[in-house]
Structures
1.
Amino acid sequence: MADNSSNNEYWSANVRLIKISLVIWALVSFGFGILLRPLLKGISVGGTDLGFWFAQQGSILVFLALIFFYAWRMNSLDREHGVEE
């Protein structure tokens, strides 16, 4: 990763991945758990409505999945750009 254009490509891919992950996390935790909860009230999951489930469990599970996805994707980006450990 010697030239500046390769550095820019690497960091733009990194920032794009972070933005996508944050949008997904915000949509699931704030959107489904708070804003869209009245719309999800009729769907039952584990004895409670889907909006409550997202607020209590779903956002945490999605956050954990995003952590593993981010780590996997960053490892492949590092290999593509020659900056792996």
2.
Amino acid sequence: MAQHLQDTTALHNGINMPWLGLGVFQVEEGSELIQAVKSAIAHGYRSIDTAAIYQNETGVGQAVKEALQDNNLSREELFVTSKVWTADMGYEETIAAYEASLAKLGLEYLDLYLIHWPVKGKYKETWRALETLYKEGRVKAIGVSNFQMHHLEDVMKDAEIKPMVNQVELHPYLSQQALLSFCKEQGIQLEAWSPLMQGQLLDQPVLKQIAAEHGKSVAQVIIRWDLQRGIITIPKSTKEHRIIENVDVFDFQLTEEDMNLINALNQDQRVGPDPDNFDF
């Protein structure tokens, strides 16, 4: 269980991945993005999650470069994730997409590369490309995003290498308990995107009550709930005070009763697309 912002968990290939990171979904290229990433790294974050489709890899790369210098860190101390978009799926296309992401980020390797969505008829070839990149030592870890159990089972039927991570929408209204149990059995690390349901849960009465009892914010309670369930989480914020607040979660513990109350909020409700029914 994470005790500190820089604590990591070992993926099934032995690579250490931080429990907490900064997501940059819907943050446009520009000074706000660069400042957010630099601020997060200055305040101790060591994991940054982007994707080709976010169209901000260039800014993330610039921020990473500046933050490494400013904080006297080596590249190896950071964990950078990106993802291959649906339009770039397929074997050769994925290899090219990886090259393009590295070039934009200005990095020599990624720590984690994910298939962004399970496009029917394409994700197996895409996975084969990720396996190639991994076997060539060009990426430290590979995984998937938005995969349901049946997608994982399907990819693993032919895979030489099991996905190391599955990053999915996960928050108290979409607790993903069955998927979490499956991933734990398979040694696949579950990671939450949109853990705060894009801010929609910040006035949730049960969460507000639990937060008040602990003298914490609702965001901190949700992030703590993720960590206590063994889930990596990447809350997104561009505001420095929120970037700091979101990871101030190591000085309290949710009780079993708290955990059960939060688990009971599940409604299988998504803010993002349904992985079984999307058209992009």
3.
Amino acid sequence: MTKNLQATTTLYNGVKMPWFGLGVFKVEEGPELVHAVKFAIKQGYHSIDTAAIYGNEEGVGQAIREAINEYGITRDELFITSKVWNSDLDYEATIAAYEASLKKLGLDYLDLYLIHWPVENKFIEAWRVLETLYKEGRVRAIGVSNFQVHHLEKLMQVAVVKPMVNQVEYHPRLTQQEVKAFCDRNGIQFEAWSPLMQGQLFDNPLLKELANKYNKTVAQVILRWDLQNGVVTIPKSTKEHRIIENASIFDFELSKEDMNKISGLNENHRVGPDPDNFDF
């Protein structure tokens, strides 16, 4: 299993994607964001996940440039993800959205570009753009976010290039077993957003008990559970001690029994929108 923060999973097209990264959802543009991203890179994080709708691609880009200049890291060591928003899912708009994200980030290419939500009657056309960008070598991998099985099936009926990643809400109270099994069967890497359920799991008695058992925090136990389930994870934090703590999960292993106990917390409970019922 993954031994360190730079450990990678290999996507089906051969691109290596870090198992662990930093998410920046709801982190506003400004010094706090720039500092958090730079600090994470300095600590050994190589993967940063943003999105057009987060409104912080410029700050992420600034942090990347400063980190490259100051820490001797190179662009090709980093894995940068962004996502196209729902209002930009027709052909011309998706191309423009990609260009805009690249410009804000100040990058020549993205490592991973995702369709953010499965907007009916729109995501297939947008996927054709992602396929084109991929074939032109302007993005190293393409994928989707928040897709359920039926969305993936519909997409894969017409896709020339199948998605490499599906990033979904995933935590011990929402294990998405059906979607995960489908992705596993089809060679699509599963990735978790909101892995810590926005802090709502920190008082869970079972997780607290396991944290004591392994001499770790509840957050570390959950993130380790992600990795041992073969799920890429991108916890968000702007606090230095949390950025360090979240990544300190490569020196222990959960037993099979404890893994199953954590999975047993599933209640199909979402903190984010329902991919089958959203209106934005």
4.
Amino acid sequence: MAAASATPTPTAPAMGPLGAPPGRDTALDVWRGFALVTIFINHVSGNVLEQFTHKNFGFSDAADLFVMFAGYAAASAYFSKYLGDEKLSTSLKVLSRSVKLYTTHLALVVLGGAVFATMAISKGDLGLFSVMALEPLMLDPPGALVDAVTLRYQPGFLNILPLYCVLIGTLPLLMALAARSMGAAVAASGVLWLAAGLTGANFPSYPIPGGWFFNPLAWQFLFVLGFALGARRNRLGAATTYHRAWWWAALAYLVLGLAAAKLTGFPENGWLAPLPDFLTVPEKQFLSAPRLLHVLALCYVVVHSPLQAWARNLPRLHPLSMMGRHSLPVFCTGLVVSITGVAFKQTGFDGALFDIAYVSAGVGTQVLVAAMMSVTEKRRSSKPPTASLPAAV
């Protein structure tokens, strides 16, 4: 997403993830697919392609995009129905989605642990458990399982689905507040984000200290901002309005992030005392202000650039579009494949050739899963509706 080289198009309406006419947002699917590919590459840690992902060129990374797009998509999928006469049914559907995310996460914990256990046993190297922070499962399996079920214990690579589960689980509350006043919903979310960042409040974690890697009290703000933009798009046909000064200011901030990443290095704690580090240092766990501003600037610049026309005009069956449309199964597939790749790299499989081949095969596997889901989706939509059974049956 080479936002820094984009040229603004002030006469065109904002389209794509942060602005599109009502209907299926193809550009949103494309950018979600982009985020999923990037997350996969980053999860196969240490591979040669990782250095080219956009986390190396600014303060934010694909996780920020993933969460923001999740909020945007949630508004598109649920909020219009909620505002109608389907409040209860929509809320129940959202809660069912959260339960699905929760059970999926637990299945991935077991599967991820099994992958590394297989490698550790075959190589006789129990130290492999430390790569994914799986020591609790080895030292105290019953306790670790209890903590995993309560989401207090989150092995490495498996910490974003718990966040997503909480965000979707609290979506009915967000919709109830937003239905009364979107401004109040965003303001309350912002206050909670600021309070978490300044006080260090977080959900508890055990036995690994420090709280959740993605602090829900902080990351919910990015989700809510995405939700508000998605709701605005549903209402007005465009989520953002082009302002020349804002666009150039956003671009300047991206250039600042690029300079920090490649020239000066990110600022260290205390560099702008007495301001708190939360407001001045890019940090992931609490979604610090520099990081939040960076992902917002990145989205704004891209939305009002020719990249949006490119994404919007891609065919529905483009690999990125299919991946974004079926993000959960694609994401879970990527997690399993990336965890396996990390295990391989820890046991002697290394080098640029292996990295490129494995990442390519992993992305290809995710595209295949997305294509299979798209075929299934098409078959379901082409089936004629079945007659309802008699009420007494």
